[in-house]
Structures are given as C-alpha cells and as structure tokens.
Amino acid sequence: MSNRPPPEIPPREYPDEPMVLYEANDGVALVTINRSEVLNAINREVSKLLLEAFAKAEADGEVRAIILTGRGRAFSAGGDMNESSAAILASTEAGDPGRAGDGDGGPESVHQAIWDLSKPVIAAVKGYAVGQACELAGVCDFTVAADDAKFGEIQIRHGYGPPFLITPYLTTLKRAKEILLLGELMDAHEAKLVGLVNRVVPADDVMTTAEDMAKKLASLPNQTMRMNKALINRTYELRGFGAGVNYRDDETFMELWTGSQRDEETLSRLRVLQERGWNAFRNERDAAYRDERGG
Questions:
Q1: pLDDT for 88-142, tens place per residue?
Q2: Where do the DSSP E strands lie in the chain?
Q3: Is 20-289 CATH 3.90.226.10?
Q4: Which residue numbers in the chain have pLDDT < 70?
Q5: How far apart are CA 79 and CA 270, in angstroms?
Q6: pTM of the predicted model as reported, rounded to 2 decimal places
Q7: Residues 31, 123: contact at Cβ < 8 Å?
Q8: What are the residue boundaries of the structural domains of the chain, listed by start?
C-alpha cells in the first residue's frame, strides 16, 4: 500500500456544473470542457462526458456542426497528470504497467469519436492546447486558434507516448519528429504553418470565427457535407490511418509502450509529482525548456 499523499487538486471553479457543458442552437452544438481551475485538464470523467456530448450531437437531427472549446483561458492543458501518474505508478507497483488509463472511455476513445462523427467538428483554441489536447484539436475537422495560443506534444517530457497518433498525418515527416521527439511548444502561427491549425485570429475573435464557420457548415447541404467528410476520412483510412493512430493495438508497439512505462526516469518524475507536488514535478520535467514561458 502506497503512503503517498493525495495529489494536489484545486477546488472546482464551478462546482455545481458538470465538467463538460453542452448546448445546441441554430444547428450548432457547443461542447465546452469545464475544468478551468486546472486549465481544462482531461481526466476520465471529462473523457466520459465528451463521449456523451458527441453522441448527443450525432443523434440530434437538428445539429449539423459542432464546436469544441475550453472554458476560461485555455483550450486544455492535456491529460490530467495527477490521475494518470497515480494510475501508472499503481499499476507498476502491482507488477503490470500495461496500458494504465486507457481502454473504453480513455482519451483515444474521444479522439476516435471525433474522427467517426458524421458531422464536422471545429476546435476553438485559446491558451494552451498541449499533450493529448494538441491531438484533440488536431483530430477535429477544423481548428481555429487565437494568435497567442500555444500548441505542443509535450508528453514526452514526462515519459508518455501520444494517445492518438494524429500528428504525422497532419504534417510532414520531419515536422512530426520535431514535434513528437522534442516536446517543444509552438505558437499558433507556426502551428498553422505545419498544418495543425486552419485559421489564426485575435483571441477575442476565436469564438466568433468558429461560430461563423459552424453556421456556414450548417447551411450547406447536410448529406453532401456528411459524404464529403466520410470520403476524406476514408481516403486516409485506406492509407493505414486507423492502424497508425491506434498504434498500441499492434503487438510490437505494445511491447515498446509497456517498456516506456517501466522506464525508471519516467517513474522517478511521476513519483516527484505524487510525493512533492506539481511545482516540483514541473520544475524537474521542464528543466531543459526554461526559455518557454508557462510550458
């Protein structure tokens, strides 16, 4: 039995509200991650509620387009490190690192759900979209970003692999390796240049731009819209997209994934988080990135 103290979890900013908000008006569904106190970090409850929200939008015949965003100053800071680190350490102590935190309702399920939706999804990004949230914005059909937004696959800093390997399909071979292996942050303009973002606008215009795009999509012939999204997705699936993004289903990569969870450097960093708290973990994790403010 572990004697670690409970992880640092700030009190909820909106305790009476669900962690994911949903509303639909004029043919557009708005799905909002509602954990602003932790920059909308994604835990299992958020993943579950996102899946429910997308299923609701898919089933609603009046909804023709979906906007995904985060409440407050960030789209999302990625996976909830307190939750995922506790799961990995617990499974390692039990002798079975496996795929802690994955499976039904895990982050890759949410990404796959967006891909499978018949209706277009627009990510409206302010602030940070990092880690699995960078992939979440990437798998959406469109991404509108604030000019001060930050993107990055930073999970390599704490020894995680990408839950949904979308980046190599959005950008080039060299850029994918730069993004996934270095774990650096990039601004919205660079993210647009490499193919992660469609449009960059002032922060105050992000939601207006996303709403205008969603309304235009909703006004177009619905069946043709659905067909065109399906055709584009099918083109990528025929090129091996499904096997690529779900790489952990492959036995060879599963062995590599399991080995990464046994890596002592990874485990030592996660123990810092559990035993000394978030600030100590971040200072150790990001020692090589001091020039990146807020990374």
A1: 545 555 555 544 444 455 778 999 999 999 999 999 999 999 999 999 999 999 9
A2: 20-25, 28-33, 65-70, 121-125, 128-130, 142-146, 150-152, 186-187, 199-201
A3: yes
A4: 1-8, 83-105, 257-263, 265-286, 290-295
A5: 14
A6: 0.84
A7: no
A8: 20-289
